[in-house]
Amino acid sequence: MLIKNIEQRIKVNKIVSLGTVAFAVIILLASFFFAYRMIQDSRKSIYILDNGVPVLAKQTDVLLNRPVEYKAQIELFHRLFFTLAPDDVYIKENIQKSLYLIDDSGKKEYTNLKEKGFYNQIVASSSMVSIHTDSISLNMEQQKFSFFGKQMITRKSAVITRKLITEGFFDDIIRSPNNPHGVMLKNWRIIDNEEISNQTKNSY
Q1: In total, how many domains does the chain have?
Q2: Does one domain contain both 24 and 104?
Q3: CB neighbours of residue 189 within 10 Å
Q4: Is 55 among the domain residues?
């Protein structure tokens, strides 16, 4: 009878021990899960600096803002790449800034325009080049974009307006001072740059 009681106590102790271990494992896994969720939620928070002190501005899912940032990056690249003045230094600085936002397809297009003498013509004719963005469409599944706008070349005697349609792809990268949106444009190309008007300026 004594032996049976001892055996029963041993079994009960085993069950209690195994239950305790299982409960501890569940608590540990739950802790890891909730810690992971907290880290993920913290990454979705947006902070601003107030005199060097980070302050939580709004806690939201930053992924909801990504399409806006993609469009802002696309618009910024085109504005930097196509806004030109009759100044070699200004042109180089704008192009350099734009190339931080795009892969080597941007450098290839810059080299192509340079070899055609486009930038030399801007300087020689004292022209100003600017663009107007009409719309930007995104295909989120393919991570592809299309840019629709107009390019204005203002010369002493005329204002030339060209259609500007480009397309390419975009990808997420780490944010940096030179690429604050954390977006890299890829495989970019100009689809249409046809002249649509040439208005002569009044001489008086």
Answers
A1: 2
A2: no
A3: 10
A4: no
Cα separation of the two ends of the chain: 122
Angle (CA) 185 187 190, round 5°: 95
Nearest residue to 172 (alpha-carbon basis) of 182, 164, 162, 180: 182
User: 91 in helix, strand or coil?
Assistant: helix
| DSSP symbol at 43 | H
> Does residue 52 lie in a domain region?
no
Beta carbons within 8 Å of 154's beta carbon, 6+ residues apart: 127, 128, 129, 130
183 touches 101 (CB < 8 A): yes
What is the mean pLDDT of each successive set of 10 residues along the chain, which is 204 residues long?
A: 62 71 77 69 53 50 77 95 94 95 96 93 92 96 96 91 96 92 95 92 63
Domain that holds residue 19: 2-43
Q: How far is CA 73 from CA 34, 115, 152, 163, 188, in A?
A: 34, 27, 21, 20, 13
CATH number at residue 90: 3.10.450.230
Residue with tokens 């107009």: 150
Residue type, position 58, single letter: K
pTM of the model: 0.69
